[in-house]
Every structure is written in structure tokens, then in C-alpha cells.
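Title: Prediction job returns without error message
Component: structure pipeline
Severity: low
Priority: P3
Assignee: unassigned

Description:
Job completed but the reporter wants confirmation the result is attached to the right record. Sequence as submitted:
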Amino acid sequence: MTILASRPVTSVSLTAARLSIAAVIANQVLLMALMFPRPELDPSWHTISEWAIGRHGWVMVLAFLISALSYGSLLVAIKSQVQVPGASLGSHCSCSAPLARSVWESSSPIQCP
């Protein structure tokens, strides 16, 4: 069994990790705040994409963008520590999904109340 030594943490990685944590907290606060203006959407069986439909949809799009920011800053935070070939590509793909979701939701023509 081979034990890999960890690389030193840079100030950029540390700042990105803190930004990622703050973005995750902001995302969760926005999701909880959306429950009050939309009481008809039960969070136990409605997907979060449904919260982007209607008058308060911009808040959900903002939550998706913050989610993308958290994934992107997490990528920056752990990039210097990743030592497995090909893991960087997977990390980039997983970080682009929330950004694509926010663009998709913001350009959706469906705007039901």
C-alpha cells in the first residue's frame, strides 16, 4: 500500500475553500427563503428546478449561480491536491453542470405563476 504525501496548501486554495463554504451556505439560505413566497410547492416532492418558474424564479437562478460558484471554488481549492490522472477532467465536468443548469433555467420560456 502506497501512502501519498499531501502537498502544501496555498493561500489561493485556502481562500477558494472559504469561498466555497460561504457559497454553499448562501445557496442553502436562498433555498430556505424560497419556501415562504411559494408555500404551494412542497419541498419534499417538488424538484428545485420547479422553484425557478414564476415571479420569484430569479432567486432560484441566483441560487444556481451561487451553486456553480461553490463548485468552481471547490475545484480551485482541491486542484493542487489532486494527484490522480484524469481526475481534473472529472472535476471540471462536475463544476460546469450547475452553471449550465442556471443558464438553462434563466432562458426557459415557461413563466407560470
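Comment from assignee: result matches the submitted record. The chain has three helices and no strands.
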